[in-house]
Write a structure and sequence with these properties.
Layout: E1 17-21, H1 28-36, E2 54-57, H2 71-75, H3 84-93, H4 109-121, E3 127-130, H5 139-154, E4 171-176, H6 178-190
Parallel strand pairs: 1-4, 2-3, 3-4
Amino acid sequence: GRKILDRVSIEVHAGEVVTVVGPNGAGKTTLLKVLLGIRSCPASRVWRKPGIRMGYVPQNIPIDPVMPMTVGRFLNLGVEKKTDSSIREALELTGVAHLYQYPVHGLSGGEFKRMVLARAMLGRPDVLVLDEPVQGVDYAGELELYRLIGTYTTAPDGMGGMGGFGAPPGKAVTTAPLAQATFAADLLTDF
């Protein structure tokens, strides 16, 4: 096979937003998956601070359209049971609390991304990892998602004092196609 990742080194500090930039097929998603431990990479070494909590927003999540699932139920999927109040709080922070009982398949692209961001934030992550977080989102939605990410990384409580959700200023690692990179980086650093 072809070599996708070679001599990559990345370090992320509190309050930083690191954007991995490159064309399609350059290995951005692969790098994130290796960093998260979702995918292995021969001869690689990945060190994470012991006990670090990571939240992940994948590029896309295929959900079978015949499976009836509400937003609230989607956020409660997983090994660890979440409280109804923590789910509602996460949805409130991402601006989609009104969609709690709404079917996942009825969401727009921007609503879906906000819901997935809310799910990633439920574990109160130290690092938020987002793979092309604005893919399939309109311009206004892009601005709002970047604002949310910027708030997460700069606020003293991790989310701008909104309900005390989060921890100290978080870190974010995100990917962006070349065409969006400067736009995304400027937006993320301005907030």
